[in-house]
Amino acid sequence: MVKWLCERAQIAAPCYTGEMSTEMTNAELTPYSDGSLSARSGLRVAVLVPCYNEARTIESVVRDFRNALPHAMVYVYDNNSTDGTAEIAERAGALVRKEKRQGKGNVVRRMFADIDADVYLMTDGDDTYHAASAKRLVEELIAGPYDMVNGARIAQSKEAYRLGHAFGNKLLTGLVRYIFGTATTDMLSGYKAFSRRYVKSFPAMSAGFEIETELIVHALELRMPVSEVETPYGERPEGSESKLRTFRDAFRILRLIGLLVKEERPLYFFTSAAALLAALSLTFGTTVVVEFLKTGLVLRMPTAILATGLMLASFLSLMCGVVLDSVTRARREIKRLHYLRYPAL
Q1: Verdict on whether the full-model pTM lies above 0.90
Q2: Of the four, 35, 67, 104, 324, which is 20 to 30 A from 283 by CA?
């Protein structure tokens, strides 16, 4: 079945011939301006900055990341800003492009599709992430080599990382860790480095801030090598407003987690539903059975019908989980083959 699906999708994994290319064996390291060895020669590094009304901070963000990674190209994707963010970013030396579909997920999808590089570093335009740590993330990605390096935030002040946001992040990160496995201690960080094969195999289905969750789950599902680097996290400068809406975005993330469980862990999802339906069926049906054993009569016919229907639904849910688990396994194998089309760093 998997072979047939692969042929239909025209996906083929590269074959290992036993010989390593001269380019890779003779790869050299290129020093950054401070003399440290950070990347192999020829590796193209792209800094991706999704922006929406960040006129107050975007100039310093572009400047700081150009200084931290002088060989990198800085791309700013403007998401319908009305405060001149795009113009300021362009004057600061960034390559500016625009995405009209509102939402960070839409911007990330467009950036990953448009930009061709070997190493991708994604940050936010609010000047809260530590630009000087960019080199550490890139070096960690290459040294692994890893497909994703997450920048775990270490708050420099109470104002930088509000208590409610910190608690929600730990709760959601713990939930994803429990369901999908361990990858990071700070799932919702917007500071990440990616390899080319990660970016070009990522479907990017989310529209808003829940994209951070999808990024982590994608790496976990394909069992990609992942690492994490702690980075300082500062507060927004005065006059800069956060686009995060605590309860709305938390609800969206929870909804996405539920959807991802259904799509990527169907046996777990439908078995849980089957167990719930079976429990309800037994709850309603027990009294009917007890009365029948005592009197030989079914005195509560509607309850009996309801209990029977719930138990049938439970068995159907279980069968759906078994079938969809096989389909998901085939889909995951195809995604893995597509991911392997691109060489490691």
Answers
A1: no
A2: 324
